[in-house]
Amino acid sequence: MAKLNVNGKTLDVQAADDTPLLWVIREQIGLTGTKYGCGVAQCGACTVLIDGVATRTCVLPVNAVTPEQKIVTIEGLSPDGSHPVQLAWIAHDVPQCGFCQSGMILTAAALLQANPKPSEADIANEMTNICRCGTYTRVKAAILDVAASGALGRG
Amino acid sequence: MTSASIASSTTLSRRSLLAGSAAAAGAFSFGFAIPLTGEALAQGVTPEINAWVVVHPDDKVVIRIARSEMGQGTLTGLAQLVAEELNCDWSKVTTEYPTPGQSLARNRVWGNFSTGGSRGIRESHDYVRKGGVAARMMLIQAAANEWKVPAAECTAQKSVITHKASGRSLRYGQVAAEAAKLEAPKDVALKDPKDWTIAGKPLPRLDTADKTNGKKIYGMDLKMPGMLNAAIKDCPVFGGKVKSFDAAVVRAMPGVRHVLPVGESGVAVVAETWWQAKTALDALPIEWDEGENAKVSSASIAAWLKEGLDAPQAAIGNQVGDAKAAIANAARTVEAVYSYPFQNHATMETMNATALYTPERCEVWTPTQNGEAALAATAEASGLPPSKCEAYKIDLGGGFGRRGAVHDWVRQVVLIAKQVPGTPIKLIWSREEDMTHGRYHPITQCKLTGALDKDGNLTGLHMRISGQSILAGIAPRSIQNGRDPAVFQGLNPPGPEASIGYGIPNLLIDHAMRNPHVPPGFWRGVNLNQNTIYLESFMDEMAHAAGKDPLEFRRALMKNHPKHLAVLNAVAEKAGWGKPLPEGVYRGICQTMGFGSYVAGVAEVSVSPEGKLKIHRIVAATDPGHVVNPAQIERQVEGSFVYGLSAALYGECTVKDGRMVEENFDAYNVLRLDEMPAVETVIMPSGGFWGGVGEPTIAVAAPAVLNAIFAATGKRIRDLPLKNADLRKA
Predict the structure, then answer these.
(1) pLDDT band at B23 (very low <50, low <70, confident <90, very high)
(2) Which residues contact B227 (CB under 8 A, 6 or more apart)?
(3) CA distances from B601 to B97, B415, B496, B700 (A)
(4) Residues in domain Aldehyde oxidase/xanthine dehydrogenase a/b hammerhead (chain B) (predicted)?
(5) 3-class DSSP state for residue B632?
(6) For residue A140, which residues of chain B lie inside 8 Å, CB to CB?
(7) Do both A13 and A32 map to the same domain?
(8) A2-6 and A70-72 strand pairing
(9) Do A93 and A120 fall within a single domain?
(10) Is the ipTM above a cut-off of 0.95?
(11) How many CB atoms lie within 10 A of CB B631?
(12) pTM
């Protein structure tokens, strides 16, 4: 039994202590926007925000997360898909198959929140998620667009 | 025929079941539309105009798509083609998949479901457009009937039919029900592509929004009431079997419900959650009977292939003049041996499927590149006739050829579900299972011998390929007299498919087939990948040996290959071939033809004194004949470089003790954003043919870079991937 704060709601979940947070989110809470890609924190498909920090959850035991920590999944990034990063993703038609994109978007959102004017080098350093379809050029363009718009980081 | 008659009651009940599961998910439930039979099919009330087009009373247009969407944008492109001829309002267009079972029941009205070989659009553009024209004509006829005027006096634009003489108009939705009752026209005329207003335009994809908010449901995300989850281990050595497993050790572990054999070679744990299933499977003692294949290694395979480079027996793919005589009489010869490794597709979403079996019926939901093949696999594994089975396609989290020809995971899930009748079973492969049970890019080596005359002109070329045949592994019946025609992709005689771009007076290209036990598959780009590396790297070698500019050396051989030459010239011009570059930056160039399209690339790279490679810029050109959506072609070209450069830099699966060594992305790295070069794409459709765009460009990624590395360092890298090479200056 664990208590988690997910997308603004406090939930009780039933899972063994060492169950990775990814599988608690997907199988106990039922939010499947967070993806399983590798299970070894390489690909970033399982990324969520924990207190605003992009975190790979496939290797994070659920008992390492406290009830006070605020978990945000792709479903909770905005109520209606209107977070500046989501809008930029749509404007640039970034996704191809889309499977890695929840992790990409959340990683980008965390990057822009911490660093509203990232350089191309900053983006390259932070965006280490794997995309096999090859959306990287569009990912970069969309992030630079959000940075240029100043939509994030003023709060 | 209306959609009501093809939406079986089973389909409807299945759909209701799923809707129920979404509602039952509690506080965090979110309304999602499972892409099963689609709204129009399931509603069973809206008449279809024909197999491709359904028009709702509110003017919503549903276009049926038989091919699979896996990121390549075919859903949007095919819809554009139908909508173009339908003259409908694009903003009202949605799409749905017909199921392969429905297609079978209707005499395969939707044609081929296979989505591979970059043929989603190029093989179906004709009949889907005709479906659009026919539907438009029927809608116009219905309006004309109502007005009692000749149809020829009516026109249709943006879903509105107008009779100009009387100033009357009707919306498509108002006449759809009547149109559906009309007989389909026999003679339909397609528009000239120059008149297109929807097709040919850089429209945004239809399926983007849900990929940004978590609503998109992939096969791995499927939920059904009462569903159990399965994790599987197949024998790590291909061809091996299960000797024994000790279920008692894990049966009491949390959530575990069943421990089951899967065929002769696999074991599955079925549990309440997948994580519980995987945890128990990892703890399950399994003894394997690995068999003779356990003796095989990368080194033993390489030695076998090497022997094929000079073997007397080989199947001929392309022959002009007498290459061996030309080589014997040459002023100078050049010889080199290249090799290309096994690679895994490594789709982001691992193999998965959900199955529900009862003795009367078996249904499977799965991401597949070929719904009909998934249905066939379901029928075969269940032992039921196809008419008692159904396969529901779900958009793929990557395909790249892995999810097309062979549906091994579907067979597995059905074999599991058969042992738990009445319970939906979702099987998900771990990344480790996925990496070690792929259908791998075939392994080959190639020996090239070129003949130059005293002026450095190419007078003869012998290209001996040794190694694996995909068709021998997947479709043995297509091997004729030991010859796999697909092996020569990109090297064929002049023609519309995968032809060589050079007029070489004496040419011999042959193949000594050597099939290791590692199962091969169609890997995005297929045999064009290594063949282009072999030929285009060697053209560069011969140019340098002849003391000629690599571009000019090629051009001299391309007088009778104008389309190959045009894309080569286009990248040379755009990249500024021959013009100065920043210090330390060097160019490489190449071209090829495959999947019906002509492509070329220039790479600009630098190599640090420590041997670190940086790819600065790629210029690519593609002539696919016709362009349905230039914005999506640009994305396919960029993505092709990611796939091709991932292969060039890192892609290698090695074999030890008969099994694959690399189990995850830490050992099987791929290109990431920090290594992504700028890509400039020239799209230059010359018309008159339809080529694919999802694959051909992959083939030019590696040779452009390899040739640029030679320019930078004087080192000719002939064995891939580059991670194994020392790039410090020679």
Answers:
(1) very low
(2) B354, B423, B424, B425, B426
(3) 36, 46, 20, 6
(4) 213-292
(5) helix
(6) 673, 676
(7) yes
(8) parallel
(9) yes
(10) yes
(11) 15
(12) 0.94
